[in-house]
Description:
- With 280 residues, the protein is α/β, with parallel strands linked by helices.
- The protein contains 10 helices and 10 strands.
Amino acid sequence: MSILTDTYTMSNGVTIPKVGFGTWQISAGETAYNAVSAALKAGYRHIDTAAAYRNEASVGKAVRDSGIPRKDIFVTSKLPAEAKSYAAAQAAIEHSMQELDVDYLDLYLIHAPWPWAELGADYKKENIEAWRAMEDFYKSGRVRAIGISNFNVADQENIYNNCTIKPMALQLQYYIGYTEDANVACAQKNGLLVEGFSPLATGFIIGNKDIESVAKHYGVSVAQVAIRYVLQKGILPLPKAVNPTHIEANTKLDFTISDDDMAFLDTLKDTAPGEDHNEY
Length: 280
Ligand SMILES: NC(=O)c1ccc[n+]([C@@H]2O[C@H](COP(=O)([O-])OP(=O)(O)OC[C@H]3O[C@@H](n4cnc5c(N)ncnc54)[C@H](OP(=O)(O)O)[C@@H]3O)[C@@H](O)[C@H]2O)c1
């Protein structure tokens, strides 16, 4: 079994392929369609998009055109961070479903606990409302799992303490030297699967000399070590690429970073200084 089809199991029993293909900053139209098509051809069976990426329609089309049975592809999208009322969330869900044009979604996440223009603001009351819409979406059977993204401990606990249906997944930024440990621990204690976005620090990790020294031990690239590191932490990596060579290379993860090398990588401070963080 390839690592791309190997799965984790979420708290509700739904399985999710251990590596997802990220689609942030991939332009809608031919670029997104070709990238997702190439990823599916290379063996990825898990695609991560969001309404905010404005490419849901191209992602959905690539999934439908792939010839791969729908049940064999795991599709995630995200509720816009600005949808902070029941009505706004419900409308956004319908819009995503229309854009994607798939019968059902596998995972839908609240993109962030605050609108992007107000990073760190307190939207706890509004998130409870938005979560109610997420729960109703889940109960309708049109999405197999629901979750949250960029939620810190306080924002997570707000949902855990006020929900009827507990989130099944948390997506947050996770790469060598930047691992949001408190947020991960809180989610895992509550039974959530943790997904790591920007495993390559949006590309800024690539020239890192310390990681390069580890990559040499296995005859692989910095990107491959960075993705493999996330997997060995039990977190689900979501690497993004448009370059077909990158798409293909990032599927070659069949090596094991030794305990010593993992310990060394753990000592590295933020390996991509200058990379933006959403942690508040
Ligand atoms: N929930 C959230 O708020 C949130 C936020 C950020 C990201 N995400 C998700 O996580 C995904 C990944 O994060 P990200 O988009 O920040 O990017 P990333 O995966 O950390 O890095 C992507 C960058 O690395 C380059 N790259 C990929 N493979 C490479 C390789 N083998 N060698 C050299 N360079 C390589 C890509 O280049 P090319 O594209 O030119 O191939 C691109 O510039 C997103 O696409 C999205 O799905 C979620």
